Amino acid sequence: MIDIKLVRENPQLFKDGAKAKRFDVDIDRLLALDSKILGAKQILQDIATEKNRIGKEIPKMQGDEKQKVLAEMAKLKEKEAALNDELKTIQPAFDALMLEVPHPPAPEVPLGMDDTQNVELYKKGEVRKFDFEPKDHIQLGLSLGMIDVERGVKLAGARNYFLTGDGAILHRAVMNFAMDFMISRGYTPMMVPLLMRNEAMRGTGYFPGSEEQTYQMERDELNLVGTAEVPLTAYHMGELLSEKQLPIKIVAMSSCFRREAGAAGKDTYGLYRIHQFDKVEQVIIGENDEEKSRQYHQEILSNSEAVLQAMELPYRVVNVCTGDLGRGQVQKFDIETWMPSRKSYGETHSASRFYEFQARRLNLRYKTEQKKNLFCHTLNNTVIASPRVLIPIMELYQNADGSITIPKVLRPYMGNRERIEPKV
RNA sequence: GGAGAGGUGGCCGAGAGGCUGAAGGCAACGGUUUGCUAAACCGUCGUACGGGUAUAAACUCGUACCCCGGGUUCGAAUCCCGGCCUCUCCGCCA
User: Fold this and answer.
1) How far is CA A419 from CA A56, A229, A320, A397, in A?
2) Burial classification of residue A417, based on how many CB atoms lie within 10 Å of its CB (0-12 exposed, 13-18 middle, 19 or more buried)
3) How distant is C1' of B27 from CA of A210, in Å?
4) Which helix (H) or strand (E) holds A229?
């Protein structure tokens, strides 16, 4: 959520921001509602002052005098009730609109319509050239007994799968390596609940907007999270932290669930776009400070780059353009890892910073040394998401004989084996 | 699933129609003391919105807020109704 005061001061900033992000929101209507509310509240306050003044004198009065004053009081209450009725319709409309106003993007975000206009910042690592006809991850997964899509679909429908044998082992190796890596960088590991209340979904900015993308447990009014960002960012919801606690750096491994509604027919082949996967996610809850926000953003980005570098995977970092930014995101860097079967870089990581957008919705604040209460800043990034990352690992590390060389850093997690080979 | 209890400031906890923005304690902050730390003692110590003096910090006035929303009343943290949430006991179970 944005600060209505900033909208009052500079509505154009928010109009332009919404337009650049390709969100449709009526800022003029928001301001009109806002000024109506302010006006009504001003009058209500005057009425309350008058009521309080009269109320204090009533116990001292008697007879006619008292009757007169009571009548006056009744009139005030009528006026008050009328204004309150008016507020009762305006306020919810205002609140709903506030939830929809996007945070304006940072000035350094490139203008663009959609992900095709994201700007590549740099590439790391060599893209492998094959001297044989490479297989894709599904072919490899089948021949090495690592992936079973057919039975996944049989039991759970489209976009579901089993990881079997070395597939499951490789998946676990990747997750555990990523988790251990983040712990070594000082992040506090957590295991988190994955069914979240609407409050947490709203607080992190997913609701309203992403209900269609979410598996909702209607009976229990709980939502299966699409990312551990939700429980991690909302962890301190409603709390007043002390500045000394900041920044809070946390990391969680969790399953993630996405309906992928509206993506019908898109990326239907393989393990790229699926309903359920596992992810290690990093979150920073920091001070209300633009410079620190940028600094933390670089930190979470470089954490993830280090994980990819350790696995020696070629990737590029992309400056996500305005049209591809989420409602609350101020700036986002995606990391895309080379995937031979797609003949392109595919998104594997997404590092976002929000300023106080999420913290406002979550009522997540801290007290500064000067005793001011400020909203925190929040940031998050993927550390690793699997099985999507298995695509580049399996495809890039495959050998002409059909085996897969295990990346060095993962070997300790796989019994120090060097290769995944076909079972005889 | 059955039966109860409860939601009050950063935290704990009292208050049971006006004297309560709220006792007391802890934590925090400032000070005295001290070789340093600790202890002891003194003081300060909620938030939001609006108005006033001031560049601002600060100060000051008003209003609201004791989970949320209604109601009773001249007046509600306190009484009544609805909702949300939490806890305890019993049962079942990983």
Assistant:
1) 85, 34, 36, 9
2) middle
3) 41
4) helix A229-233
Q: Is A88 (CB) below 7 Å from strand B?
A: yes
CA–CA separation, A136 vs A141, rounded Å?
8
**What are φ and ψ of residue A321, in 5° steps?**
-80, 165
The answer to whether residue A41 scores a pLDDT higher than 80 is yes
Which among A17, A174, A140, A226 is positioned nearest to A421, based on CA atoms? A140
Could you say which residues 220-239 of protein chain A have a Cβ atom less than 7 A away from any atom in strand B?
221, 239
- Give the right CATH number for A115-420 from 3.90.650.10, 3.20.20.140, 3.30.930.10, 3.90.420.10: 3.30.930.10
- Please report which confidence band the pLDDT of residue A69 belongs to, taking 50, 70 and 90 as the band edges: confident
* Domain ranges across chain A: 4-100, 115-420
What ipTM was predicted for this assembly? 0.88
Within its chain, how far is the Cα of A342 from the centroid? Answer: 26
CATH number belonging to domain A4-100: 1.10.287.40
A45 touches strand B (CB under 7 A): yes
State the pLDDT at residue A89. Answer: 85
Q: Which nucleotide is nearest to A370 (CA to C1')?
A: B29
Using pLDDT thresholds of 50, 70 and 90, give the confidence band for residue A26. very high
User: Does the CB of A54 sit below 7 A from strand B?
Assistant: yes
**Coil, helix or strand at residue A93:** helix
What does the block give as tokens for A388?
Answer: 């999507």
